[in-house]
């Protein structure tokens, strides 16, 4: 088991990872982070006991460095990290779009890099994370990352060439489900239900549907057909969804997210 882990940029995803590792049995003394704002650092130290450090300390003390800043903030962070990093330290990037080649160009020769696309259900131990090795990452490095992330959800290995698509599907995916739930609650309001009732009905329906998908092994089409009675209510709703192009909208939306992930990577091609 790796010992010390440092998260550079403890925002939403960084905090979710650190708190999940703590819950999963990691020693608090082995978990550290860097943050831009002292108030945010103090908040995390008070809430969990994690140690706030600077980049040189993180680079010296950690076996695994997890980069969790926004892709737009990567350049100054790599400037700080490069002169301090030991070539044996494993670097794990959670950043959308950023290729392992960017890290390999900017960090000491031979540093192993693993690219990960997680998602926010990490907060409740239900993340979906996809991991890909960079040029110097071995099977052992992938196993280390798998072990780390399996504490906060499921992990799959994918070739790095698929990471932009993964980002569009599961990285952003929770947002699409939240959007759908939000719209369905609005529909309840339109039909005159109290908001609290509409919320309860839709959230439990979402939990039930997700659990059926995860546990029955049935295809989503089979599950949907089981709800759709001849000349019943559901088919009337499905006709409207098709008429309004919801399926085509999802295809276009996810393609746009994939394109944006590729673009974020290209923005750092010369870095
Ligand atoms: N949110 C999500 O659903 C997912 C996000 N990701 C990826 O994870 C990464 C983080 O996303 P998210 O957690 O949402 O973003 P956040 O903005 O919540 O977290 C990033 C944090 O890093 C801080 N920061 C920025 N630069 C530095 C620096 N040089 N040193 C220390 N801290 C710094 C930011 O401070 P400040 O507030 O000042 O900006 C912020 O607190 C992104 O690259 C994103 O693509 C991946 C999968 C899902
Ligand atoms: O919207 C984003 O860019 C990040 C990456 C995946 C989910 N959130």
From TrEMBL:
Domain Pyrroline-5-carboxylate reductase dimerisation: 160-264
Keyword terms of this UniProt record: Amino-acid biosynthesis, Cytoplasm, NADP, Oxidoreductase, Proline biosynthesis
Catalytic reaction annotation: L-proline + NAD(+) = (S)-1-pyrroline-5-carboxylate + NADH + 2 H(+); L-proline + NADP(+) = (S)-1-pyrroline-5-carboxylate + NADPH + 2 H(+)
Gene Ontology molecular function terms on file: pyrroline-5-carboxylate reductase activity
Uppermost EC category: oxidoreductase
Localization annotation: Cytoplasm
The keyword Transferase is annotated on this UniProt entry: no
Pfam families linked to this entry: F420_oxidored (PF03807), P5CR_dimer (PF14748)
Function: Catalyzes the reduction of 1-pyrroline-5-carboxylate (PCA) to L-proline.
Assigned protein family: Belongs to the pyrroline-5-carboxylate reductase family.
Protein name: Pyrroline-5-carboxylate reductase
Organism name: Actinophytocola glycyrrhizae
């Amino acid at each position: 088991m790796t010992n010390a882990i440092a998260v550079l940029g403890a925002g939403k995803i960084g905090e979710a990872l650190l708190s999940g590792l703590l819950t999963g049995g990691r020693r608090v003394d082995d978990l550290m982070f860097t943050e831009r704002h002292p108030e945010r650092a103090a908040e995390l130290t008070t809430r969990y006991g994690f140690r706030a450090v600077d980049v040189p300390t993180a680079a010296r003390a950690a076996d695994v460095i997890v980069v969790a800043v926004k892709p737009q903030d990567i350049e100054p962070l790599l400037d700080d990290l490069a002169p301090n990093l030991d070539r044996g330290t494993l670097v794990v990037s959670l950043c959308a779009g950023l290729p392992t080649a960017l890290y390999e160009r900017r960090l000491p020769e031979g540093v192993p890099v693993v690219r990960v696309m997680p998602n926010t259900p990490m907060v409740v131990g239900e993340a979906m994370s996809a991991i890909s090795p960079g040029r110097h990452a071995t099977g052992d490095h992938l196993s280390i990352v798998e072990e780390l992330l399996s504490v906060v959800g499921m992990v799959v290995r994918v070739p790095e060439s698929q990471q932009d698509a993964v980002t569009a599907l599961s990285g952003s995916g929770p947002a699409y489900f939240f959007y759908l739930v939000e719209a369905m609650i609005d529909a309840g309001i339109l039909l005159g239900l109290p908001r609290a009732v509409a919320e309860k009905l839709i959230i439990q329906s979402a939990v039930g549907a997700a659990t059926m998908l995860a546990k029955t092994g049935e295809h989503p089409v089979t599950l949907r057909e089981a709800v759709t009675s001849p000349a019943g209510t559901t088919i009337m709703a499905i006709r409207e969804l098709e008429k309004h192009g919801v399926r085509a909208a999802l295809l276009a939306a996810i393609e746009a997210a994939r394109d944006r992930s590729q673009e974020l990577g290209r923005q750092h091609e010369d870095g």
